[in-house]
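Pasting as-is:
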Amino acid sequence: MSAVGRIHLVLVPSTDHDRSIAFYAALGFEQRADFLFGDGARWVELFPPDGVCGIALSGVAEASAVGVDTGLIVTAGDLGALHASLRAAGADVDAVVARPGGDVAIRVGSADVVGPTPAMFGLRDPDGNALLVIQP
């Protein structure tokens, strides 16, 4: 039996591809594909600058299909600076950065984790899809 290779893409639901592209571009993601397929559906691939795994925007017609926990964890070199700039820009981020040994709880999947390692904060895209940003 043959083995699989690396993880290439994770589907993230989007009600507005252009809005999602702008959001992820502000985080540093690069757009590597954008084309129509099938009956006019739009396929968009976005990758972090040094990442080999990216996201593919999955078009959805109903708002009830968004607001999911993507399971995505992305890294940031300066977590505090990124958190502050996202808050200043009006992004939907956790109020504070959860740091190791601290008393701030952060939602990871279905669990609340207090004082996590590494430092992290939650971030939601314009459709409410959740991801974590960590500082390794």
